[in-house]
Design brief:
mainly alpha; 2 domains; about 80% helix; elongated
Length: about 170
């Protein structure tokens, strides 16, 4: 390979570092979500004594929703770093959870879609639990429809990945 080709290859290969600011942006977003979680937790604890059971459940579901979203962001941060910036050596990080390293694209798609379905399900449940205060059945129907759509997409993607994996295994 000539010098021009190597130079072009180096520019292309090193352009992966342009994704690093996006990852840092997600880290800032995760910190902002932590702030929202702490505020929501404080509100929840302060109002828990006088809150009816349905409002307590909605408060808990709100916390679960924020936690699932934080987990989703963390998965994206770690997998993006490892897949596009630099590989992570598990030996250098013995306490790192296995679910944050060695995440291939197929597994990432399934984790992302699974998290989105779970977050959507929590929203639907949260809405349903608070239906006495917001009796808008059209909105609830849309929420359920979106959740079902995400679940169907997740099943289609998982099936496609399984079919492509079994096809790839037959070729080898």
């Amino acid at each position: 390979m000539n010098g021009i080709g190597r130079g072009i290859e180096a520019v292309i290969f090193n352009s992966r570092w342009l994704a690093a600011p996006f990852i840092f942006g997600l880290i800032v977003g995760l910190a902002g979500l932590l702030y929202k979680f702490i505020v929501k937790l404080a509100e929840f604890v302060l109002h828990l004594k006088d809150a009816p059971n349905s409002e307590a459940l909605v408060g808990i579901l709100s916390l679960v929703d924020l936690s699932l979203t934080a987990n989703l962001i963390l998965i994206v941060i770690c997998s993006s770093y490892e897949n596009f910036i630099r590989p992570i050596n598990p030996a250098d990080h013995p306490n790192m959870p296995n679910g944050l390293i060695r995440i291939g694209f197929a597994v990432l798609k399934q984790k992302l879609l699974g998290s989105i379905v779970a977050i959507t399900a929590v929203h639907v449940l949260e809405w349903f639990m608070d239906i006495d205060h917001t009796a808008n059945t059209a909105t609830l129907a849309w929420l359920v429809g979106v959740m079902i759509a995400f679940a169907v997409v997740m099943l289609i993607v998982a099936t496609a990945d399984r079919v492509s994996d079994s096809g790839a295994n037959k070729d080898h």
